[in-house]
Amino acid sequence: MATAREAAEAEFRRFDTDGDGLLTAEEIRKANEALGGHGASESEIEDFITAADSDGDGTIGLEEFVGLVGHGRHEKA
């Protein structure tokens, strides 16, 4: 069974469509659209980006992503 970190890394790679090691808002929106309308709202996407982007560069790196989702903190209660 995969650890939470391994699962988060796999999700990151799936979302990082250009393979540059960074998630942009557009890549996150495309991943959300692929969920067929069952994903996050635009405001939830923006909140996710704000929460994950710890260095303020407008993108989400692997460690930022793992730090947020690798521990289940992104999931709704």
Automatic annotation (TrEMBL):
Keywords, comma-separated and alphabetical: Calcium, Repeat
Family annotation (CDD domains): EFh
Cite the InterPro entries for this sequence. Centrin_CML-like, EF-hand-dom_pair, EF_Hand_1_Ca_BS, EF_hand_dom
A Pfam match is EF-hand_7
EF-hand domain ranges (all copies): 3-38, 40-75
| Tree of life domain | Bacteria
The keyword Transferase is annotated on this UniProt entry = no
The protein's matches in PANTHER family, at most eight in alphabetical order, are given as: CALCIUM BINDING PROTEIN (PTHR23050)
Its name, as the record gives it, is EF-hand domain-containing protein
What organism is listed for this UniProt entry?
Answer: Nonomuraea purpurea
